[in-house]
């Protein structure tokens, strides 16, 4: 492919991604994979160039652009290498019109910018920079010192005692450490969130929104494979991904529990009053993970945010009856918005007077209401709000 043909391919992909973001369709990575599956002539260099064009546009525009061409034309205004590629040659984009590329770019949607804390609002580029490649050492099978000896490219993460930061592009899933289950890919912020639960051997722990189980596996290691650990989710495919990961990690105590949306309370009734710890890593806006999922900004709007906040409150109320007296509730979201973090904790304390906040993280993050906020700007982790609450005995 010529450079102009690569740009045209990016424009076509962006058109598909814009429609999918508007209609709740497939993710950008999925659409890119599908696109190249039917274009075998595109080599690795072509795919890399097209992908870089696509994600440059996604990162540049906080609000969803109208068209892929409009998005790339906007980038061409300040990119002298890009503008000549609008050359009108076969397989390339037609030449730019007089008024093309004049739409302003802003990395954060205006409606959302005012909801961010001043720290993040004044450094929006940090929310969209390249995320580091972090792994967590699985203590069921080894320790960080030994793993570092086999990963000379890596360095210990600054906050998590189990984290290793690796160079971008390293093929982790082909490394013997990963194949043997001695490390798991996991951002340092996510590692800290799991550690904040304080899970110990012999406990009964419920991961109420387990997803594919990254935090579940960390909890199993903290529990030294002793006790009861229940991973719950409303999507079967997510839990199906957890099973082979647990086998590879040697995490034998994990039970999976599929919840029926709308009937979760009935599904969870058998666990009422049994849990020492319930972890809620709730569905959220994902504003803390834009470095990994910049396209999420195009899928979010005020109505969607309100629905997520209602769901978060619902999940909190599902979790409360599961705890035994003196039990611990850990609430977390990968969000930088107070309405999903500190405000949810405040509302929880208003609805459930038997709870009080407990110290959660020390030496990292900043206080936010009854919890702690980790930020890409100040902590170089994904953005997370996490609060730990104790139920009275």
Describe it.
It is a single chain. By secondary structure, this protein is an alpha/beta fold. It is 37% helix and 17% strand. The mean pLDDT is 94.
Q: Tell me the span between the first and last alpha carbons.
A: 67 Å
Radius of gyration: 22 Å
> Spans with pLDDT under 50 lasting ≥5 residues?
none
Q: Could you give me the name of the CATH homologous superfamily of the largest domain?
A: Vaccinia Virus protein VP39
Number of domains: 3
Structure class: alpha/beta
Order of helices and strands, N to C? HHHHHHEHEEHEHEHEHEHEHHEHEEEE
CATH fold group of the largest domain: Rossmann fold
Based on Cα principal axes, name the global outline. Answer: globular
Biggest sheet, open or closed, and with what strands and sense? 9 strands, mixed
In short:
The protein is α/β, with parallel strands linked by helices and 393 residues long. The chain has helices at residues 3-23, 28-37, 44-60, 68-76, 110-113, 118-121, 144-150, 176-179, 188-195, 214-222, 236-249, 264-268, 296-299, 302-319, 342-351; strands at residues 133-137, 155-156, 163-166, 183-185, 204-207, 228-233, 254-258, 275-281, 323-333, 355-358, 366-368, 371-374, 384-391.
């Amino acid at each position: 492919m010529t450079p102009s043909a690569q740009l045209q391919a990016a424009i076509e992909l962006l058109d598909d991604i814009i429609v999918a973001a508007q209609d709740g369709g497939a993710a950008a990575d999925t659409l890119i994979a599908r696109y190249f599956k039917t274009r075998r002539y595109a080599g690795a260099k072509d795919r890399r160039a097209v992908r870089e064009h696509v994600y440059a546009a996604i990162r540049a525009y906080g609000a969803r652009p109208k068209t892929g061409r409009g998005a790339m034309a906007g980038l061409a205004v300040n990119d002298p290498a890009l503008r000549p590629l609008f050359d009108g040659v076969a397989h390339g984009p037609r030449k730019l019109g007089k008024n093309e590329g004049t739409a302003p770019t802003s990395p954060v949607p205006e409606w959302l910018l005012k909801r961010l804390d001043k720290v993040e609002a004044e450094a929006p580029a940090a929310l969209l920079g390249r995320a580091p490649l972090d792994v967590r050492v699985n203590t069921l099978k080894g320790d960080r010192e030994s793993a570092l000896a086999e990963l000379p490219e890596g360095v210990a993460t600054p906050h998590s005692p189990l984290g290793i930061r690796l160079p971008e592009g390293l093929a982790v899933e082909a490394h013997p450490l990963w194949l043997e289950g001695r490390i798991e890919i996991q951002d340092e912020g996510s590692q800290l969130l799991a550690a904040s639960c304080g899970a110990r051997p012999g406990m009964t722990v419920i991961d109420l929104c387990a997803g594919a189980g990254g935090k579940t596996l960390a909890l199993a290691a903290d529990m030294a494979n002793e006790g009861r650990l229940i991973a719950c989710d409303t999507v079967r495919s997510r839990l199906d991904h957890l099973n082979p990961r647990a086998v590879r990690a040697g995490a034998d105590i994990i039970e999976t529990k599929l919840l029926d949306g709308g009937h979760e309370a009935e599904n969870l009734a058998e666990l009422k009053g049994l849990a020492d710890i319930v972890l809620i890593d709730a569905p959220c806006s994902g504003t803390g993970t834009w470095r990994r999922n910049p396209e999420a900004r195009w899928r979010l709007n005020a109505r969607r945010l309100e629905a997520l906040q209602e769901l978060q409150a619902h999940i909190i109320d599902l979790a409360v009856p599961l705890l035994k007296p003196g039990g611990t509730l850990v609430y977390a979201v990968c969000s930088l918005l107070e309405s999903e973090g500190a405000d949810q904790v405040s509302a929880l304390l208003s609805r459930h007077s038997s709870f009080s906040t407990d110290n959660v993280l020390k030496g990292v993050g900043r206080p936010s209401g009854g919890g702690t906020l980790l930020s890409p700007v100040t902590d170089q982790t994904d953005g997370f709000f996490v609060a730990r609450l104790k139920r009275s005995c």
